[in-house]
Amino acid sequence: MSDRSSGAADAYWRANIQLVLKLLVVWFVVSYGCGILLVDVLNNFHIGGYPLGYFFAQQGAIYVFLFLIFFYAFRMNKLDQKFGVDEKE
Q1: Which end of the chain is less congested by CB atoms within 10 angstroms, N or C?
Q2: Coil, strand, or helix at residue 60?
Q3: Single pTM value for the model
Q4: With left for phi above 0 and alpha for psi between -120 and 50, is residue 75 left, alpha or beta?
Q5: For the packed helices 3-28 and 61-83, what is the interaxial angle rounded to 10 degrees?
């Protein structure tokens, strides 16, 4: 493997890891922060008659996790195209 392709592979994986770490931070903030630490503050607001803290702990976090999955797939497709490793039809 040449140095150029090795450098491109390293840059690709570095970008992938950075994306994963950013999404993990969002996951942590939503699940731990909004669902546990900030529940009392969030309970002052209501969605559909339910306190916001309860909503995040029960359903809101699931919606955010689903969004993160689709966002990761979208961004990885863009990253694959940028580095020329996308699946061409």
Answers
A1: C
A2: helix
A3: 0.79
A4: alpha
A5: 170
